[in-house]
Amino acid sequence: MAHLGILLSRTTMDEWSQKVAQCCLALVDAFKEDLLKSNDVPIDETTPRVYGEKDRLNTTPSYMWAVRGGLPNSGPQTFIDQSSLTRSRSVAWFLVMGGR
User: What is the DSSP string of the chain?
Assistant: First the structure.
């Protein structure tokens, strides 16, 4: 936005991002239902470093989970990713099952 001459605070951009995320929850739930139709659901984890996070050392890893699935031979596959502060099994379970 800055290159267009529009100056926005990080707080404003964060609030907008959160509102958009709330609007997308139904779509994410539909993606999760599609994932569960798969015969297998591959999940990949990577550990990006996020610098400058409040109350966390720069050497503390974060976790990014990527999940792919959907019915085979039925067109595009579903792909969901989510970040987490831990690599707890419950994070992957929640990602796929949505807390069910």
Answer: -GGGT----HHHHHHHHHHHHHHTHHHHHHHHHHHTTSS---EEEE--B-TT-TTS-TTSB-EEEEEEE--TTSSSPEEEEEEESS--HHHHHHHHHTT-
User: Between residues 59 and 93, which one has the greater pLDDT?
Assistant: 59
Mean pLDDT of 14-27: 91
Give the separation between CA 66 and CA 88, rounded to whole angstroms.
14
Q: What global pTM score does this model have?
A: 0.56
Q: How far apart are CA 83 and CA 91, in angstroms?
A: 9
pLDDT of residue 23: 92
> Virtual CA dihedral for 45, 63, 90, 17, nearest 10 degrees?
-120
